[in-house]
Amino acid sequence: MAKYVDLHAHYLPALDDGATDRRMSLQMVRAVASLGFSDLYATPHQRAGMFMPARVAIDAAFQTISEDVEAAGVGAKLGLGAENFWDDVLHKRLGDHTVPGYGGSKSFLFEVNPQLMPPGLENELFQLRVAGYLPVMAHPERYVAVQRDFTLAERLGRHAVMMVDLGALDGAHGKQEMKTARRLVLEGLAPAAASDIHRPEDQTSVAAGMAWIRKQLGDGALDEMLAENPRRMLTGELPDVPLPR
Ligand SMILES: [Fe+2]
162 and which of 114, 127, 134, 140 could share a cystine (Cβ 3.0–4.6 Å)? Predict the structure, then answer.
């Protein structure tokens, strides 16, 4: 039975670098659902100067795709969030309490520039936690600073959830990203994972990433990373960093 929760996906059409049209959106929802996901959160990019779809366009796309998914009889529940780039727009929204979190909650997904780790990020995440937010860091394996220094992932992980891309575990995003993602999972520094699907064919590497976790750590760990912890995160809870496996 489908039970996993996907907290990072770009299946809404024509908003960012994800799905290009409705037909592709439905294919992507089917692709992720067929891997055992019951809850699929769309997280369109919000990045100043690059992808900044308007609230009204996002809501309209979400409505349309929800209807298509319902009509097609795909037994998946859709939810809405955003992938917020760590920029001035996000900071303004944090100040205004208008950050697009998961389902309007105080849990929100963010990413930073792969080459430039913002100085003071650890302290800022701490402050956000104190203010009741749950920051979720997208694909930590992609950041050069994390690749070079794993203790950074450990420190950031005290105040934010390190959520790896499943495809990265299978090498879909490069060798260094694969090595880093695998190590984050094996060392218990990444309590959650997500599809970050951009195209229907990403299903293959997402499935391979899930198979890798199952093989290395067993079904229990996969359930923890894809079902139990994401559900906790939606309630604003920071999952326990597991003991080294
Ligand atoms: Fe993404």
Answer: 140
